[in-house]
UniProtKB/TrEMBL annotation:
Keyword Nuclease: no
EC code(s) of this entry: 4.1.1.35
GO molecular function terms noted in the UniProt entry: NAD+ binding; UDP-glucuronate decarboxylase activity
Record InterPro entries: NAD(P)-bd_dom, NAD(P)-bd_dom_sf, UXS-like
Matching PANTHER family: UDP-GLUCURONIC ACID DECARBOXYLASE 1, UDP-GLUCURONIC ACID DECARBOXYLASE-RELATED
Pathway, per record: Nucleotide-sugar biosynthesis; UDP-alpha-D-xylose biosynthesis; UDP-alpha-D-xylose from UDP-alpha-D-glucuronate: step 1/1
Broad class of the protein's primary localization: cytoplasm
Protein name: UDP-glucuronate decarboxylase
Species this protein is from: Vitrella brassicaformis (strain CCMP3155)
A Gene Ontology BP annotation from the UniProt entry: UDP-D-xylose biosynthetic process
Catalysed reaction equations from the record: UDP-alpha-D-glucuronate + H(+) = UDP-alpha-D-xylose + CO2
UniProtKB keywords: Cytoplasm, Decarboxylase, Golgi apparatus, Lyase, Membrane, NAD, Signal-anchor, Transmembrane, Transmembrane helix
Membrane topology, record value: Single-pass type II membrane protein
Length: 383
């Protein structure tokens, strides 16, 4: 299979020298063909692990892992995590769940099924095989937080019946299942609460603020800001995040750990940075603030620093430039990527429809900024 454009943008061998060297294992990555999962697989493969990538391709893509297809230590399977998976592994990175608002709101019932049934299935697999399981949770479990920055002990302020609740409450349930399987069945679990993540291979139209701004800027459009633009987010570069997940999987700590960049930027600052890198002449347009969009998200990462020896290394300016370059490269290879027709609403589908249905190509339904972005894609068996 020939390498794709996305493949050529993978880290070089020298880039991996900064990643920790961990004893090799047989590893399952659910949602492995998604945004975060594919970067994690790059590290795992470079370190010599045997890797099984399970993905339904709802928002993931074979192109993201194309460089590994045909490698004797890599196996790619199309699978929906709401169905049991029978493999023999030492470690499970469970990234399967729709992570961007446009995807998880497209079929809320399927999102809940993925979070609950999918997590039950991989926990059952971990119990049977004795594998260690890492759940990719999210900062969305904190909701619209009243405590800043958010520590792992904070129980959150979540709207349990809002449009975002299928994701927020689904992840909270997944965390509870992991802890109960640990207490009752002694399953060896790890929980990563992932904050905003960005970088190469992001889906062009996933509704996240970084990808939205870059696509709009490349199309020469005004950059929309909802509210006054003073709401803040902390943005972690995807390679920093993948390194944190690897360290968390291979530490001895059981319980949630925040993985994110604690440096806050306002949405207005982000828009200005993207504009400066793509087209300084673009205008910024202010729109009405959507409901349930958190005003602040900032991780407290003391545990990550002390327990994992981890902290982010890539500054937003550097990471944004890499991301813009990646979007430009993919857009040049296929200009249609920038001009998929936007929809304001995705048609709901029956909750029993197959996970392989295509995600909507649209902006976030509620215009929000996707404050918590966990694993890569839906039922990627799906992050």
């Amino acid at each position: 299979m020939t390498e794709s454009t996305a493949t050529s943008l993978s880290p070089t061998d020298s880039d991996y020298n900064s990643f920790p060297q961990i004893p090799t294992k047989r590893v399952l990555v659910t949602g492995g063909a998604g945004f975060i999962g594919s970067h994690l697989i790059d590290i795992l493969m470079q370190n010599g692990n045997d890797v099984i990538c399970a993905d339904s391709y709802f928002s993931g893509s074979k192109e993201n892992v194309a460089k590994w297809i045909g490698h004797p230590k890599f196996e790619l399977m199309r699978h929906d995590v709401t169905q049991p998976l029978l493999v023999e592994v030492d470690q499970i990175y469970h990234l399967a769940c729709p992570a961007s608002p446009v995807h998880y709101q497209h079929n809320a019932i399927k999102t809940l099924k993925t979070n609950v049934l999918g997590t039950l299935n991989v926990l059952g697999l971990a119990k049977r095989t004795g594998a260690r399981l890492l759940l990719s949770s999210t900062s969305e479990v904190y909701g619209d937080p009243e405590v800043h920055p958010q520590v792992e002990e904070y129980n959150g302020n979540v709207n349990c019946v809002g449009r975002r609740s299928c994701y927020d409450e689904g992840k909270r349930c997944a965390e509870a299942l992991c802890m109960d399987y640990h207490r009752q069945h002694h399953v060896d679990i790890r929980i990563a609460r992932i904050f905003n993540t960005y970088g190469p291979r992001m889906f062009f139209h996933d509704g996240r603020v970084v990808s939205n701004f870059i696509v709009q800027a490349l199309r020469g459009e005004s950059l929309p800001i909802y509210g006054d633009g003073l709401q803040t987010r902390s943005f972690c570069y995807v390679e920093d995040l993948a390194r944190g997940l690897l360290l968390l999987m291979n530490c001895d700590y059981i319980g949630p750990i925040n993985i994110g960049n604690p440096v806050e930027f306002t949405i207005k600052e982000l828009a200005e940075k993207v504009r400066a890198k793509v087209n300084p002449k673009l205008k910024i347009e202010y729109r009405q603030m959507p409901k349930d969009d958190p005003k602040r998200r900032q991780p407290e990462i003391t545990k990550a620093r002390k327990i994992l020896g981890w902290e982010p290394r890539v500054h937003l300016d550097e990471g944004l430039q890499r991301t813009v370059d990646d979007f430009k490269s993919r857009a040049q290879a296929n200009p249609k990527n920038l001009f998929i027709m936007h929809q304001t609403e995705a048609k709901p589908v029956d909750d029993d429809d197959e996970a392989e249905q295509q995600p909507p190509a649209s902006k976030t339904m509620d215009g929000s900024y996707g404050a918590g972005e966990g694993g890569p894609s839906v039922v990627e068996a799906g992050a």
